[in-house]
Amino acid sequence: MFIYSLRASTLKFFGVVCVALVSLITLIVFIPTYSADGTMPPDTDTSAQTVSINYEKVKDNEDRIEFLSQFGWKVDDEPLECVEVVIPAEFDSVFAGYNEIQKAQGLDLGKYKKKTVTRYTYEVENYPGYSGTVHANVILYRNRVIGGDICTADADGFIHGFEKQN
């Protein structure tokens, strides 16, 4: 004959395991699945989703132009400028303000403090409602877009993220 007894700590253990399993199953059911590149699979309903922007694998000039075209920008075939820049260890008020623009578009230069990055500047050919020169800056680190903006160098100019402004 076998006798088996349960202590209160054993019951608590199984209770915690059950709650964890229920939580895990709930997460699996309600969180959408993504493909390996981080985008939704093509058979998923995308009516309530936003367009996915690819910030990865930006290796050459064609990739940078294609990246900007995701936002609807048409730029010259060659960059006006290609400069290596070191992200400062401490942000002054100007750089902190610029990083707020980056954060608004889902990027953060704070992760790249003291890193040497490359900034490519292109001339935008299709900026709506503005007759002056408009530039698109794309900041890359290891073939990944980590920041950038659309701006003009005019004294009364503007600067904003990659998305078109109304």
If you had to describe this structure to a student in words, what would you say it looks like?
It is a single chain. The protein contains three helices and five strands, in the order ααβαββββ. With 166 residues, the protein is of the alpha+beta class. The chain has two domains: 7-49, no CATH class; 61-160, no CATH class. It has a five-stranded antiparallel β-sheet. The longest helix has 23 residues, at 8-30. It starts with 7 loop residues before the first helix and ends in a 6-residue tail after the last strand.
List keywords for this structure.
166 residues; alpha+beta; 5-stranded antiparallel sheet; 3 helices; 5 strands
Q: What is the tally of beta strands?
A: 5
Helical content class: 25-40%
Major sheet attributes: 5 strands, antiparallel
Mean pLDDT: 84
Class per helix and strand makeup: alpha+beta
Low-confidence stretches: 44-49
How many domains comprise the coordinates? 2
Provide the β-strand percentage band. 15-25%
Task: Please compute the radius of gyration using only Cα atoms.
Answer: 24 Å
User: Strand sequence of the main sheet, in spatial order?
Assistant: 1-2-3-4-5
Distance between the termini: 81 Å
Q: H/E series, N to C?
A: HHEHEEEE
State the assembly state of the protein chains: single chain
Shape: elongated
Q: Count of helical segments? A: 3
In terms of topology, how is this protein built?
Blueprint: H1 8-30, H2 61-69, E1 81-86, H3 93-104, E2 116-124, E3 134-141, E4 144-151, E5 159-160
Antiparallel strand pairs: 1-2, 2-3, 3-4, 4-5
